[in-house]
Amino acid sequence: MRLRLGLGLVLLVLALSPAGAVNPDEMLKDPVLEARARSLSEQLRCMVCQNESIDASDASLAHDLRVLLRERIAAGDSDQQVLDFLVARYGEFILLKPRFNAHTALLWLAPGIVLVVGGAIVFGVLRRRRSGGQATRLTGEEEAALKHIMADDR
Length: 154
Fold this sequence. Notes:
Low-confidence stretches: none
CATH superfamily of the largest domain: Cytochrome C biogenesis protein
Number of domains: 2
Radius of gyration: 31 Å
CATH topology of the largest domain: Helicase, Ruva Protein, domain 3
Mean pLDDT: 82
Distance between the termini: 84 Å
Largest sheet: none
């Protein structure tokens, strides 16, 4: 009984989930051009959902962007020309994987920098622990001064 109920719930969830946001009326008739359009739309961020590609988003702006992208492809633009057009219009934020340039260098280099700095800190801590945290030896003058201070305290 529980197995049937669980299976029924899984099937219900799968039936209610959207199969994909691209509507049949948006698709290009040429399968090669449609494949290019799908590939490009997976690289573009939905400006409404922000963490979803326009290929997967049901937002009306994502629909408009999918239509615009297909219009540009049908007009003969290359993939790079389509991306450049959309970046010029909406900014680098539209790309799910931003390009490496002066504006995005910190975004691309920060993980490596954090890894190196974190590794150096861990190395330093482990090195300090391995040495036992022993204090350095006192010089003769320092020992004499310490004995004098301790004698005054008694």
